[in-house]
């Protein structure tokens, strides 16, 4: 247990200092690093940083990449520029995780509570999601990265929904690397809708009381957690010590 904890702590330190924050230079100790395609970094696989053991790597890392607005304000930039910087860092972060042998990365991109932000900022974020998904489809395919989006999505613009479906369809066959974006997501709301779905199916006679178990409940969650492992490590980049209704 102790070696595993040490490995996770070393991994956390390495990832945070490498590429998690928009204001942190994208540097790491791996060889053969080169910059490609709008700030995306590919790192060599020849060397694992000191303190990290590939056989003890987490299978699934979740990240709350917040602090973009505060960083932009301190840097004298627009809020939209802060979000753009964060989006670039996410791609770098996911690439680095995959090179280290981590199978799944989930990013909390937009919470249900974020609809309460200024309309201009919300519109900017929706446009940013659409731009990055659309512009990165060929990149995801060339790197064989499966992309999934979890969340309610009822309020999402039709154009973004179309791009989400296109990206998911184009990458659904890939098995080894999985990037999950949580958009319009709330852990509590997800649990509530799963309960309602089970009750409805029970009333329709589709399931019996004795059928209700953890596996059935997991199948009803928007997180589709039967398709990938549960998170082993959760990182919040801003330093806040709370999970903000994420992957409960």
From TrEMBL:
<feature type="signal peptide">
    <location>
        <begin position="1"/>
        <end position="18"/>
    </location>
</feature>
<dbReference type="GO" id="GO:0016740">
    <property type="term" value="F:transferase activity"/>
</dbReference>
<dbReference type="InterPro" id="IPR001441">
    <property type="entry name" value="UPP_synth-like"/>
</dbReference>
<dbReference type="Pfam" id="PF01255">
    <property type="entry name" value="Prenyltransf"/>
</dbReference>
<comment type="similarity">
    <text>Belongs to the UPP synthase family.</text>
</comment>
<dbReference type="InterPro" id="IPR036424">
    <property type="entry name" value="UPP_synth-like_sf"/>
</dbReference>
<protein>
    <recommendedName>
        <fullName>Alkyl transferase</fullName>
        <ecNumber>2.5.1.-</ecNumber>
    </recommendedName>
</protein>
<keyword id="KW-0808">Transferase</keyword>
<keyword id="KW-0732">Signal</keyword>
């Amino acid at each position: 247990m102790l070696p595993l904890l040490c490995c996770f702590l070393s991994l956390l330190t390495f990832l945070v200092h490498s590429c998690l924050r928009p204001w942190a230079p994208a540097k790491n100790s791996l060889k053969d690093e080169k910059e490609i395609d709008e700030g995306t970094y590919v790192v060599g696989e020849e060397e694992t940083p000191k303190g990290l053991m590939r056989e003890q790597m987490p299978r699934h890392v979740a990240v709350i990449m917040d602090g973009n607005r505060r960083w932009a304000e301190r840097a004298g930039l627009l809020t939209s520029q802060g979000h753009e910087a964060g989006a670039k860092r996410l791609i770098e972060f996911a690439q680095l995780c995959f090179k280290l042998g981590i199978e799944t990365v989930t990013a909390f991109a937009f919470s249900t509570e974020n609809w309460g932000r200024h309309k201009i900022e919300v519109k900017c974020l929706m446009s940013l999601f659409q731009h990055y998904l659309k512009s990165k489809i060929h990149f995801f395919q060339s790197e064989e990265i499966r992309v999934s989006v979890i969340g309610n999505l009822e309020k999402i613009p039709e154009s973004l929904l179309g791009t989400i479906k296109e990206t998911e369809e184009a990458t659904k066959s890939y098995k080894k690397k999985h990037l999950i974006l949580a958009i319009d997501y709330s852990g509590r709301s997800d649990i509530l809708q799963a309960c309602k779905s089970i009750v409805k199916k029970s009333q329709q006679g589709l399931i019996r009381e004795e059928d209700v178990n953890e596996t059935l409940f997991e199948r009803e969650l928007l997180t589709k957690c039967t398709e990938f492992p549960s998170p082993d490590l959760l990182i919040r980049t801003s330093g806040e010590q709370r999970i903000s209704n994420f992957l409960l």
